Structure prediction request, 293 residues.
Amino acid sequence: MSSGIAHRCALPDASFEEAWQSIKIAESVKTRLLAQSILALTLRPAVPFETAPLHGLIVLAGDPGTGKTTLARGLASRVAAMIKGPKVTFLQIDPHGLASAALGKSQQQVTTLFQQTIPEAGMGGLAVVLLDEVETLAADRRRMSLEANPVDVHRATDAVLAGLDLLTRTHKNILLVATTNYPQAVDPAFMSRADLVEMIPLPNAEARGEIIADTLRGLAKRWPRVADLTRDLTTFVAASDGLDGRRLRKAVVGAAAMSIETARDPGLTTSQQVLASIKAAGRSAKEAGREAA
Ligand SMILES: Nc1ncnc2c1ncn2[C@@H]1O[C@H](COP(=O)(O)OP(=O)(O)OP(=O)(O)O)[C@@H](O)[C@H]1O
Ligand SMILES: [Mg+2]
Prediction:
């Protein structure tokens, strides 16, 4: 695969759709993402850019572990399933594969990406391109630190913006979905080109209940007694306030690691262990938050 491409496949993709279903979030968010994506693909070929300046770019912003990458992939697949007909290709960009310490190299790679790799993926159909962790690709030019080769990063961001402008005017069959943990570290000119910036929140109580139940059900397929733990769902939900989806799933599964016995036979995991594991995850999340602040 050419440098900077993390993944390429045909859409729809069954595993992406399953992942989309696994993300518990207000249905209105999923609908908004789908509608905006479909509109971009419907409207852009039909109306001049000057009238309707849609770039075909959606940004998902939010804390780590809130399901952004999973949602972006699921969205790509759902869009492909709904726009029946043309061949749809999925491309996931690995920004770290592009960044290079050698002066000017990443700039050239970015240009190749936007002028060649992405348009090629859309040839004869549509392409949905995931720009994961876009703060690396389109770093805010005003926040460049001196030791991090500011000239090169500056040029790379310039190249992303130039590439984006050219791409969106000449290739209206391409949808870009970008994710970031640090919207404030992404260049504002990039953010301003987004048709929709969706803030992906930490899961609320309802979503946490679904995530915990879903995780327990998954375990119960192999260890049926785990299903009994759903009796204490309300307690688990109350204790898990502030946890992201990734930490929460890990905490539920990790409850079995509270003793060697349950690690060997997760079917023996108790409610007390699940609760203790969730509380421990909450404490470490708080500490991590304090360190970051
Ligand atoms: N709202 C949610 N509902 C269900 N599962 C979730 C939710 N949020 C996160 N997860 C789970 O957490 C894991 C991580 O999700 P994902 O990698 O998509 O997060 P992310 O936002 O891209 O994280 P990062 O910013 O660190 O890249 C996945 O296994 C996903 O199923
Ligand atoms: Mg991610």
About this structure: Strands lie at 5-11, 57-61, 87-93, 125-131, 174-180, 196-199. Residues 22-25, 64-70, 179, 181, 203, 207, 211, 245-246, 249 surround adenosine-5'-triphosphate (ligand 1) (CB under 6 Å).
